[in-house]
Write a structure and sequence with these properties.
The complex is a heterodimer of chains A (about 290) and B (about 290). By secondary structure, chain A is an all-alpha fold. Chain A has 11 helices and no strands. By secondary structure, chain B is an all-alpha fold. The chains are: A mainly alpha (about 290), B mainly alpha (about 290). The interface between A and B is large, with 49 and 59 residues.
Chain lengths: ~290, ~290
């Protein structure tokens, strides 16, 4: 048998395949995320769709019950409920991604202010604030802020980000403390590495990895919270499945599909993101993330 | 023992006081700072009574006592089920960890908790109208004589989404508390020393995980109380949660403070009981 060397493109392809195979689970989950997000946003963001106008009932309603042409039926103006529900879920997802991302970033920034200090009680202030915040249900605070301010989306999002920052900071602080007990960190101290280097290059990468899992887990919870606020009517006249259900419940005798089917889509989308979130957090070994929403 | 109980009571009361002040500040900031209202928190006119449609004929005291009783009824059902399912199934999942049964036990609750609770209660109302041919929402029929079975049925419907979400959350906490105790080196030592797995689990692991297990007691409460507000309002159930939403919509600060502090006070009470239980464990030394 001749000792024939493989060509360079073949070697390159083999190496690429090995790399992709190594991260196959990540690629698979990222693909699923892209697929569902792409599908949700394929109908456009539709931020200017107002549920009060869409769900208003004209003198001669044009609504149709669900059929093969309109899976979720149509509204009184003849608009497709499925398309509107998809736009609503895309909006909820966008709000959830932004709020979870910036909320966790705020929590991390808050923790990093104390992470470089020495001693076991360096996160005491964070824990104290967290414990005082723990006895207040975040939804109560959100309703007060959103209802009192007149329900602008920006206010609700800022309130969500601050609440996530306060609630999740103790969790991130405990990750830093867990990291300090790991062998590589103890070895780093024994080798004489500076504390700054240990925090930045040994603790922080592990925390960031777990933070990605927490982010994935929190997205469906924030989506549910956003929909609840919208259902309660404290986030203004903005399209969301919560608002659609709230308007649709006044028509449950005449056109029950207008309240039922947006909820079906919301449940399915939240469920998919929940399963993906659990998978991501278990792959990244995030550990328990407390649900407050 | 009395000293410890009073000490924890002092901490809980101080925390409650701070929360009350923060709540007042938040109301002022939200309504006057962001909303541009002239009704400041210190003005007596901001605490005007509700209309008769909210208060009914009995006035504010009757409204408060009726609504507290209605919400307590929901919470009694929800909390007892959450503790029973959360601890029971969490223990079972940890005990049978090697078979990875935890995911299967948690799955129904986790799936159900992904469903918006307010939508679920509206579905029940639609089902009542269309299939049972009877009123759907909680405010449509009032029982005036005989046992209030309908009231319990309505409370149960409101409690179902709370039970699903709370059980899923508590189950994970209990499972993690026991699992982390099981992964400690002494369990391996006991196994090598000839102890059987049952004895290791019940005689050592469960005892060792006592403090984290008690700590998990009040974990699902902020979630449950947050859900309660939305679901009560959706089902038109006259409880403290719906009072909060009605007060926010009517910009009635008295109602907002009363309903919020009622919810926060209950969480504080459970939190205090939990703290006492942790500190009164035999041989337990903790920093709170």
């Amino acid at each position: 048998m001749a000792n024939k060397r493989k060509s360079r493109p073949l070697l390159w392809l083999g190496a690429l395949f090995a790399r992709v195979w190594h991260i196959r689970r990540v690629v698979f989950i990222a693909g699923l995320y892209l697929l569902i997000t792409g599908w949700l946003f394929s109908g456009g963001s539709g931020i200017d769709v107002r549920p009060a106008e869409v769900y208003s009932v004209p003198e001669k309603p044009l609504w149709e019950a669900p059929d093969s042409a309109h899976w979720f039926g149509t509204t009184g103006h003849g608009k497709d409920v499925f398309t509107i529900s998809r736009i609503a879920m895309a909006t909820s997802l966008a709000v959830a991604v932004l709020c979870s991302g910036f909320g966790l970033l705020l929590a991390l920034t808050f923790v990093m202010l104390f992470a470089f200090d020495q001693g076991g009680r360096r996160f005491r202030l964070i824990r104290l604030i967290g414990r005082t915040g723990f006895i207040t249900p975040p939804m109560v605070l959100l309703i007060i802020v959103a209802g009192g301010s007149g329900g602008s989306l920006a206010t609700v999002m800022v309130a969500l980000i601050i609440l996530i920052g306060i609630q999740q900071a103790p969790m991130i602080a405990s990750w830093f403390e867990e990291g300090e007990e790991k062998f590589d960190v103890v070895a780093g101290y024994a080798l004489g590495l500076a504390r700054r280097d240990i925090i930045m290059y040994r603790d922080l990468p592990k925390v960031l990895r777990r933070l990605a899992g927490a982010f994935a887990v929190m997205i469906p919870w924030i989506m549910l919270a956003e929909m609840t606020l919208s259902f309660l009517g404290v986030t203004g006249n903005r399209i969301s499945c919560g608002a659609m259900i709230a308007y649709g419940q006044h028509l449950i005798i005449e056109a029950p599909w207008m309240a039922v089917y947006p909820g079906v889509l919301a449940s399915v989308v939240v469920m998919i993101f929940s399963f993906l979130g659990w998978r991501v957090s278990s792959l990244l070994r995030t550990g328990e993330v407390q649900r407050y929403w | 023992m009395t000293r410890l109980i009073l000490q924890r009571l002092f901490f809980s009361a101080a925390r409650l006081g701070v929360t009350f002040l923060l709540l007042m500040l938040l109301i002022e900031f939200a309504f006057c700072g962001l909303g541009g209202s002239d009704q400041h928190i210190w003005l007596a006119s901001s605490y005007a009574p509700f209309g008769s449609d909210v208060e009914g004929e009995g006035g504010f005291r009757v409204l408060f006592s009726e609504r507290s009783a209605a919400s307590l009824r929901v919470l009694v059902i929800a909390l007892s089920c959450v503790l029973l399912i959360g601890y029971g199934w969490g223990f079972l999942a940890a005990r049978l960890r090697r078979y990875r049964i935890g995911i299967i036990l948690r799955l129904p609750f986790s799936v159900f908790s992904a469903i918006p609770g307010f939508w679920f209660v509206i579905l029940i109302a639609i089902y009542s109208y269309s299939i049972w041919q009877r009123p759907g929402f909680a405010n449509e029929v009032v029982v005036t004589s005989g046992p209030d079975l309908l009231g319990w049925w309505h409370a149960f419907i409101v409690a179902v989404p709370l039970i699903a979400a709370g059980s899923a959350s508590l189950m994970i906490s209990v499972f993690n508390a026991i699992s982390s105790e099981m992964s400690r080196p002494y369990t391996h030592g006991l196994f090598v020393g000839g102890y059987n797995s049952e004895s290791i689990f019940y005689d050592h692991v469960v005892k060792g995980a006592g403090t984290p297990l008690i700590r998990a007691l009040d974990r699902p409460l902020p979630l449950l109380f947050g859900l309660l507000v939305g679901i009560e309002f959706a089902f038109r159930y006259r409880g403290m949660g719906s009072l909060l939403v009605e007060s926010v919509n009517a910009a009635n600060y008295g109602g907002i403070i009363l309903s919020s502090m009622w919810l926060i006070g209950l969480i504080s009470l459970v939190n205090w009981l939990r703290d006492c239980a942790i500190h009164l464990q035999p041989g337990e030394v903790t920093n709170g």
